[in-house]
Amino acid sequence: MLNALAFVGDLRGKRVLEIGGRSRRMTSLLALQGAHITMLERSGTDKAAAEVARWNVQDRVRLVKTDGGLEALGNETFDVIFTKSVLWSVEHLEPFLEELDSHLVPGGKVAFLENYRGGRLHFWFRRNFVHRGDFSWEKNYHGITPEQIGIFREKFADLKARRYLTFIYEIVGHKRPRNDQ
């Protein structure tokens, strides 16, 4: 996460879209750095509001409850788009990334911290050690595959994708210039 934050750089006065800010801590952290945050979340906006108030950054955070789509954003654009453990659950990644790109200003940055799908060994390890057997990964887990990194490369410029601990992808890049698309 620290590498992704270093990549996005100084956030003072920047408009940031955070998708899936479940823990709400990242939202508050970004706001404490001076960003103006729009956080999209399917649930938990009450808890998010409490966390934001705890850090006294409500003047820089807008919480939007959504069903998973980006319709609530209208034509709004952002300097930075940030996700953590969200895109792995997107069934049709390419059109979703296109839609995200439409909300990014020219030269804007993306930072995605996403789960790596992995093979059967990863499924077994996660099911038995991480989730203690109470989650059916095979039925519910899509995950980012190495092949899908190519989709990110097509959509964003200067893309860097790095895998950590074989479980997490850090994917960062810039909005591709119009003449480069």
Oligomeric state: single chain
CATH homologous superfamily designation: Vaccinia Virus protein VP39
CATH class value: Alpha Beta
Task: Please identify, by name, the CATH architecture.
Answer: 3-Layer(aba) Sandwich
Strand order of the largest sheet: 3-2-1-4-5-7-6
Unreliably modeled segments:
none
Average pLDDT reading? 83
- Element order: H for helix, E for strand: HEHEHEEHEHHHEE
**Main β-sheet description:** 7 strands, mixed
Estimated structural class: alpha/beta
Shape verdict:
globular
Named CATH topology: Rossmann fold
What is the count of DSSP helices, taking H or I runs of 4+ residues?
7
SSE inventory with pairings:
Layout: H1 2-8, E1 15-19, H2 25-32, E2 36-41, H3 45-54, E3 61-65, E4 78-84, H4 93-102, E5 104-115, H5 120-130, H6 137-140, H7 149-155, E6 156-164, E7 168-175
Parallel strand pairs: 1-2, 1-4, 2-3, 4-5
Antiparallel strand pairs: 5-7, 6-7
Short description:
This protein is an alpha/beta fold and 181 residues long. The chain has helices at 2-8, 25-32, 45-54, 93-102, 120-130, 137-140, 149-155; strands spanning 15-19, 36-41, 61-65, 78-84, 104-115, 156-164, 168-175. The model has no long low-confidence stretch (mean pLDDT 83).
Task: Report on this structure.
This protein is an alpha/beta fold and 181 residues long. The chain has a single domain (2-174), classed as 3-Layer(aba) Sandwich (Rossmann fold), CATH 3.40.50.150. It contains seven helices and seven strands. The chain has helices at 2-8, 25-32, 45-54, 93-102, 120-130, 137-140, 149-155; strands at 15-19, 36-41, 61-65, 78-84, 104-115, 156-164, 168-175. The chain has a seven-stranded mixed sheet with strand order 3-2-1-4-5-7-6. The model has no long low-confidence stretch (mean pLDDT 83).
